[in-house]
Write a structure and sequence with these properties.
- The longest helix has 8 residues, at 9-16.
- The mean pLDDT is 97.
- The protein starts with 8 loop residues before the first helix and ends with a strand.
- It contains four helices and twelve strands.
- A hairpin with a 2-residue loop joins strand 9 and strand 10 (135-147).
- The protein is globular, with a radius of gyration of 16 Å.
- The protein is 16% helix and 44% strand.
- By secondary structure, the protein is of the alpha+beta class.
- Bound molecules: flavin mononucleotide (FMN).
Length: 164
């Protein structure tokens, strides 16, 4: 019988590249400052009470701002947000000011910036965190949502952005 070899980090990344994902921006604001990054590691946890999680690289000290502010908003991107996705992904060098300038933002219930024309947005209070491998998992209690079902999602698949 054929035995499947143990996965390396590269094998894992290659297999994950086959999985089409929604693209989100994760934003925060508060005493620790304003920050926004692209993330695909976003998952629904529960509808009662409404809870989501996002995995952020904990070796990037700038990501401490999320926990320090205690709030974040997940805004799911639509077709027209491709330039915002590119500038907030670390693919091109840009300041946080330049990143925020690419989107239209409103202030959420928690004080986190919410992308006004997102496909959907989930404004959250952080209720729990857990460190796992290179990442920190932030669990967010959803305080408010917005949605715009007339738009089509921006998708990340095989290491590139796509429209469906
Ligand atoms: C498609 C895509 C998905 C990403 N998903 C995540 C993620 O889930 N978690 C994360 O910490 N970083 C993720 N990143 C990387 C961050 O967006 C990137 O490290 C961040 O924008 C760097 O910001 P900085 O230069 O201000 O530190 C992703 C990048 C891309 C291109």
């Amino acid at each position: 019988v054929l035995k499947v070899p143990e996965a390396s980090s590269a094998d894992y990344r290659d297999a994950m590249a086959e999985i089409a994902e929604h693209v989100h921006v994760v934003s925060t604001d508060g005493a620790a400052g304003r920050r926004v990054v692209v993330a695909t590691a976003v998952t629904s946890v529960s509808d009662s009470p409404p809870t989501v999680l996002v995995c952020l690289n904990r070796h990037n000290p700038l990501n401490d701002a999320y926990v320090d502010n205690g709030v974040f908003c997940i805004s799911t991107l639509a077709e027209p947000h491709r330039p915002l996705a590119e500038i907030c992904s670390g693919m091109v060098k840009a300041t946080q000011e330049e990143r925020f300038a690419r989107g239209r933002w409103i202030t959420g219930t928690t004080g986190a910036p919410v992308l006004a024309d997102a496909l959907a947005s989930f404004d959250c209070e952080i209720v729990e965190t857990m460190d796992m491998a290179t990442h920190r998992i932030l669990f967010g209690r959803v305080r408010s949502v917005r949605r715009d079902g007339d738009q089509r999602p921006l998708i990340y698949h095989k290491r590139g952005f796509h429209l469906v």
